[in-house]
Amino acid sequence: MLKFFEENADTGHLILRVGLGFASLFLRGIWQLAGGPERWEQMGGAMAYLGITFWPVFWGLVGSLAEAVGGLCLLIGLFVRPAAAFLILTMFVICVYHLNNSGTLLMARAHAVELAIGYAALLFMGAGKYSLDRKLGLGT
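Below the sequence we write its predicted structure tokens.
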């Protein structure tokens, strides 16, 4: 049984990448983009906890795009490392927001930490064998 999993490690890599990409794109990113400027301003307001108080609509749009476009990149395996980096930064801002508003990252607020860990793994691992990055010679 262990040999089967060792021989199919690339499949596990694909499952991680596609799973995180699907979640980022369809469970968060698209909905945040569809929320429009009102939603983006609310999201971008989290940047104030980092001392950035200008252009909250812009920062909210950037966060929404990071999750939607980044999720699509992970899903199809294209530009996976840059997408993962942007997604990690987005999760960092979400964590800072939760810490400032509730003082904890417990329960549902821990989701951003969990996602950041997965994105960090992909940042180091790259897109993997079954990806457009590999097919186009852009990396692993």
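The two ends are 27 Å apart (CA to CA).
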